[in-house]
Write a structure and sequence with these properties.
The chain is α+β, with helices and mostly antiparallel strands. It has 21 helices and 30 strands. It binds one DNA strand of 25 nucleotides through strand 3, helix 3, helix 5, strand 22 and strand 24.
DNA sequence: CAGTGAGCGAGCTTCCGCTTGACTT
C-alpha cells in the first residue's frame, strides 16, 4: 500500500525522481506509450468519425497489469509523462487503460530533473489537456493513414514489402534529388593565384598572399603572370579589425549526432546507443531532446567549474534559444549530470562521447573568443589586380580553450595565420607566384548526420526517430551507405619564379566518398512513383503545414476529426485512383539496340534487383538477362556498359588442365576453376579484363591463404579442425561450427577439449525460429 | 551462397513516436 504513485516515461528517470521524493512516493515507468493503434489492420474506423482502435501490445500487458494494481491501491496517482504532445497522450492513455478516477489523479510536468523542479511540479498539478491529446491523436491517425494506404500500392505496383511514410519518403527524396543534382553538375575550373614574398625584416619571414579573384582560364593566367614578371609589389593598405567568436549552444539530439559523426566518426545509431548507456548510468541528462535549455543548477555548476579551472574571465553564463522548427522542448539540452566529473568509467567510445558532451556544455558557458583580423592589400605596378594577405591573432581564447565546433564543409581551407609586421608603402620582394587550376565542386552527398540536420531544418521527424528513420530507409533498400573510390584528375599548375614562367601537369584524386548515402535504383523508382502520384505528401512543407493544424487542435481552435477528414477525403480518392490506373513501375528504360542481334536492350528492376535484358519475352527465343554491377544504376548506365555485362561469364584460359572462367555473381566478381570460386577484389582486378597469368596468381594466393586458415588438425579424427575465421579461431566438425570458450586458445585445446565443446552443441542454434527471421536479421547483420 | 529472372497458388509485408532490452554475428 502506497500513498502516492508517480508514473514517468523512462525507468532511469523514475529512479532519479524517487530519490528526490522520499518514502511516500512510489515512482514507476510506463516505458513510453502503453498502447497504440491495432497493428494488423488500419486500426482506424474511417466510417465512424475516424475512431482509433487502440490496443495494449502483448509485451506491455504485464506492465499495464502491474500499474493497474498499484494505481488501485494508491491514494493519488501522479501522471508525470513529458510536457509535450506525445507525453500528454501517454498520460491520457494511462488514465483510460488503468481506469483512473479523476478525483485521485493529478497531472504534473517538469522539463528538468532537479529536486526543485519536481517539488514545484507537485505543488502545481493540473488536469489532462484534452486538446493536446487530440492533437496527438490527429498526428498518429494521419501517419497511419498515409503509411498504411500508400505502402500497399507500392507492393502492387513496384515490389512487395516496401513502405512509404510522411517522414521516410521525404528523407529518400532528399537523397535521390541530391544524387541527380550531382550527376547534372558540370564542373568548371579557374586559376587560384597565390604569391609568396620574401621579407628582410624580420629576416627570412614569408608573406603569403592571394589574388583578389580567380582567373578563369590558362591564357589569361599566363598573361597575368607575364605582367608580374617585371612588376613592383607594394603594400597599399593594412587594416586591423577586431572580431569575436561565440560558442555553440549545448547539444540537442541532432547536433550531438552531427558532431559525434564529424569528430568521432560514429553513425547516428552508434551515438544513440552510447548516449543511452551514459544516461542509464546517470552520467548525462536525457539524450532525446530538441531543447538547448540548461537548468539553473547546470548553469551554476558550469560557472563554478569554469572559474575554478580557467579563471573568472572565462566564465559567461548564458541561456540559449532554440531555432529549430517544431521543437517541443520537453527536456533539457544534453549535458553531463555532474559537470565536475571529468573521467567516467566505461568503454572508450562511451568516454569519448561523454568528453564531447562535457566540453560542449562547458564551452557553451564560456566567454567569447576575441580575435584581431588583419588584412593587407598589395598593389601590382603593372595591373589593377591586387594581392590580399590576411592574418588572425587570437587576443583572448575564451571558449576556444575547450571546444571548437566542426563543419560539414569538406573543402574548407582553414589557413588563418599570423601576418608579419607590414608598413604601408613598403615594397615587397617577390619569391614566386603560383597559379593552380581549381575546380568547382558539386553539393556534397548526405551523411547520416547531415541528413538528420536537414530533416530537422525541415521540421520533419523527432529526436526519437532520427536514428530509426535512417536505418529504415537503408533496410528497405532505398538508400545505401557506402564508400566510393575517387577518380584521378589532371590539373595545371603555372609558376613564376626568377622571372621564368613554367607549367606543370599535376594529378589529384577527386570524388572519393566515405560513408555517404546513395540512392538505390529501387529508392529512385519508388521516389519517382510517389512524386508522381502523391506530390503533396512528398512536399517538403507537408509536415510543417499539418503541424500548424495540429497546433490549432492543441489550442482548441480545430476539431481533430474535422482536420483528418479534410485531409483524408481527397487523399483516399487519390489512393483509389492510383491503385486502379497507375502503371506498374519497375524503372524500365530502353538503352538502344544490341548490335549482335538487333534486338532492343533495356534495364529494369527484376526479382533479384536491377538487371539488363536483351530482347522481349514475346520473341521466339527467351530474352537474355544480366544483373547490374555494384555502383551501376538504371539511371546512369550506358548502352556500352550494359553490353559488357553480357560478356560474362567468360573463359579466361586454362590452368592445370581445367578451365578458368570469370564472372560477377551476387557477391561480386569471381574466378571459377575446378568447381571452386575465387573472389576478385574490385579495386585490383575486374572480371572483364583479367588475363590468365593474373588469374593463376589470384588462385595461388588464395590457396596459400586457405592453408594458413587451418590452425590445428588432430590425428585422432581428420574431420575435426581448428580454423582461423573472420572472428578468430573456431572449431569445425562435420560441417558444423563451434565457438571456442573464453579463456581458451587454439594452441591449448586438446582433442578431448574439442570433443567436449562439440558435445555441448553448435555455436548457434541451427533451427531458425520462423520464416520471418531472415528479414529481421538483415537489420542486425549490417552492424559490423 | 556464385549468372537466378515475368504468368497459377496462400498469406505476408507497411506508418511515426514514446520507451528499453534480447538477440547474434
Amino acid at each position: 500500500m502506497v500513498e502516492n504513485l508517480v508514473i514517468v516515461e523512462s525507468p532511469a528517470k523514475a529512479s532519479t525522481i524517487e530519490k528526490f521524493l522520499g518514502k511516500n512516493y512510489l515512482v514507476k515507468s510506463s516505458f513510453g506509450h502503453i498502447r497504440d493503434l491495432e497493428k494488423k489492420n488500419l486500426g482506424i474506423d474511417v466510417k465512424n468519425d475516424y475512431t482509433p482502435q487502440y490496443i495494449v501490445p502483448e509485451d506491455k500487458k504485464k506492465l499495464v497489469a502491474e500499474l493497474k494494481k498499484l494505481a488501485k491501491d494508491a491514494q493519488t496517482v501522479w501522471l508525470a509523462s513529458d510536457e509535450d504532445r506525445e507525453g500528454e497522450a501517454i498520460s491520457w492513455h494511462l488514465f483510460e487503460v488503468l481506469g483512473l478516477k479523476p478525483e485521485k489523479t493529478k497531472r504534473i510536468v517538469f522539463n528538468e530533473i532537479t529536486k526543485e523542479a519536481i517539488l514545484r511540479a507537485i505543488e502545481n498539478p493540473r488536469t489532462i489537456d484534452n486538446n493536446l491529446v487530440n492533437a496527438q491523436q490527429a498526428r498518429r491517425v494521419l501517419d497511419r493513414l498515409v503509411g498504411f494506404e500508400i505502402s500497399p500500392i507500392l507492393w502492387r505496383k513496384v515490389k512487395p514489402a516496401l513502405s512509404a511514410g510522411r517522414v521516410q519518403s521525404v528523407a529518400v527524396r532528399l537523397i535521390v534529388e541530391r544524387e541527380r543534382e550531382i550527376h547534372a553538375f558540370k564542373t568548371s575550373s579557374a586559376f587560384k593565384v597565390t604569391a609568396n614574398f620574401q621579407l628582410t625584416d624580420p629576416k627570412k619571414a614569408t608573406l603569403y598572399a592571394e589574388l583578389d579573384n580567380k582567373i578563369n582560364n590558362r591564357d589569361n593566367t599566363l598573361e597575368f603572370l607575364k605582367k608580374c614578371q617585371n612588376a613592383e609589389f607594394r603594400v597599399a593598405d593594412v587594416v586591423t579589425k577586431p572580431s569575436k567568436k561565440s560558442p555553440a549552444p549545448p547539444f540537442t539530439t541532432s547536433t550531438l549526432q552531427q558532431e559525434a559523426s564529424r569528430k568521432l566518426g560514429f553513425s547516428v545509431s552508434q551515438t544513440m546507443t552510447l548516449a543511452q548507456k551514459l544516461y542509464e548510468a546517470g552520467r548525462i541528462t536525457y539524450m532525446r531532446t530538441d531543447s538547448v535549455n540548461l537548468s539553473e543548477t547546470a548553469i551554476n555548476m558550469a560557472k563554478e567549474v569554469i572559474t575554478k579551472d580557467y579563471g573568472e574571465k572565462y566564465s559567461n553564463p548564458r541561456q540559449y534559444k532554440t531555432k529549430s522548427k517544431g521543437a517541443q522542448e520537453a527536456h533539457e539540452a544534453i549535458r553531463p549530470s555532474y559537470l565536475d566529473q571529468i573521467d567516467i568509467p566505461g568503454s572508450t567510445a562511451e568516454k569519448r562521447l561523454y568528453d564531447l558532451i562535457r566540453k560542449r556544455t562547458i564551452a557553451s558557458q564560456m566567454s567569447d573568443a576575441a580575435l584581431e583580423k588583419t588584412t593587407a592589400t598589395i598593389d601590382i605596378s603593372t595591373t589593377s589586380e591586387k594581392f590580399m594577405a590576411s592574418g588572425e591573432v587570437l587576443k583572448f581564447e575564451g571558449f576556444l580553450k575547450v571546444y571548437i565546433e566542426s563543419t560539414d564543409d569538406e573543402n574548407e581551407e582553414n589557413s588563418e595565420r599570423l601576418l608579419p609586421p607590414l608598413n604601408k608603402g613598403q615594397v615587397l620582394a617577390l619569391d614566386f607566384i603560383k597559379a593552380t587550376e581549381r575546380f568547382t565542386h558539386h553539393a556534397p552527398r548526405y551523411t547520416e548526420a547531415s541528413l538528420v540536420k536537414k530533416l530537422e531544418e525541415l521540421g520533419i521527424g523527432r529526436p526519437s526517430t532520427y536514428a530509426p528513420t535512417i536505418s529504415t530507409i537503408q533496410q528497405r533498400g532505398y538508400v545505401v551507405k557506402e564508400d566510393r573510390e575517387g577518380d584521378e584528375r589532371q590539373y595545371l599548375g603555372i609558376t613564376l619564379k626568377n622571372k621564368q614562367i613554367s607549367e606543370q601537369t599535376l594529378k589529384e584524386i577527386t570524388g572519393a566518398e566515405k560513408a555517404k548515402l546513395f540512392p538505390s535504383d529501387i529508392g529512385t523508382i519508388v521516389n519517382d512513383f510517389l512524386i508522381n502520384h502523391f506530390n503533396d505528401i512528398l512536399d517538403f512543407n507537408f509536415t510543417a503545414n499539418v503541424e500548424k493544424e495540429f497546433d490549432e487542435i492543441a489550442t482548441g481552435h480545430l476539431g481533430w476529426t474535422k482536420m483528418i477528414d479534410k485531409f483524408y477525403s481527397p487523399f483516399h480518392k487519390k489512393v483509389e485512383i492510383t491503385t486502379e490506373t497507375s502503371e506498374r513501375s519497375i524503372g524500365e528504360k530502353i538503352l538502344g539496340t544490341d548490335p549482335a542481334s538487333g534486338k532492343p536492350i533495356m534495364v529494369k528492376i527484376g526479382r533479384f534487383g536491377p538487371m539488363a535484358q536483351i530482347g522481349e519475352a514475346t520473341d521466339e527465343e527467351k530474352p537474355r538477362f544480366a544483373g547490374l554491377l555494384k555502383g551501376q544504376s538504371i539511371e546512369t548506365i550506358t548502352l556500352e556498359q550494359a553490353l559488357d555485362l553480357f560478356k560474362l561469364p567468360r573463359l579466361v584460359g586454362s590452368f592445370e588442365d581445367k578451365e578458368v572462367t570469370a564472372g560477377v555473381g551476387r557477391f561480386g566478381p569471381y574466378l571459377k576453376h575446378d568447381a571452386k570460386f575465387y573472389s576478385l577484389r574490385p579495386k585490383e582486378d575486374d572480371a572483364l579484363s583479367i588475363n590468365i597469368d593474373r588469374a593463376i596468381e589470384v588462385i595461388t594466393i588464395k590457396r596459400i591463404e586457405q592453408q594458413n586458415k587451418v590452425l590445428k588438425t588432430f590425428a585422432e579424427d581428420s574431420e575435426l579442425q581448428i580454423l582461423n575465421g573472420r572472428w578468430g579461431a573456431y572449431i569445425v566438425y562435420k560441417k558444423e561450427n563451434y565457438k571456442i570458450p573464453k579463456g581458451q586458445t587454439a594452441e591449448t585445446l586438446t582433442f578431448q577439449d574439442c570433443q567436449e565443446i562439440i558435445k555441448n552443441g553448435p555455436a548457434k542454434a541451427k533451427a531458425k525460429p520462423k520464416a520471418k527471421a531472415p528479414v529481421k536479421s538483415a537489420a542486425k547483420g549490417k552492424k559490423k
